[in-house]
Amino acid sequence: MPCRHLLFALLSLCNMVVAADPIHLTLRYRLETAEGTQRFHTLRREEQWQPGETALILCDVWDSHHSHHAVLRVNELVPRLNDVTNDARKRGVTIIHAPSSCMEFYKSHAARLRAQNMAAAGSYPDEIGSWCYKIPSEEQGAYPIDQTDGGCDDEEAEHAAWLKELEGQGRNPKAPWVRQHAGIEIDSERDFISDQGKEIWNILEARGIKNVILAGVHTNMCVLGRPFGLRQLARNGKNAVLMRDMTDTMYNPKQAPFVSHFTGTDLIVEHIEKWVCPSITSTQFIGGEEFKFKNDQRPHLVIISAESEYKTEVSLPKFAAEELGRDFKVSFVFDNAEDRNDIPGLFAVESADVLFVSVRRRTLPPEQLAIIRKHITDGKPVVGIRTASHAFCLRNQPAPEGLADWPEFDAEVFGGSYANHHNNKLQTTVHVTGDGALLDGIERTDFLSGGSLYMPSPLAEGCQVLMTGTVVDAAPEPVAWTFTRQDGGKSFYTSLGHVSDFEEPSFRKLLLNGLHWAAQQ
Question: I need a labelling partner for 106 at 20 to 30 A (CA). Which of 48, 114, 286, 486 fits?
Answer without folding.
Answer: 286
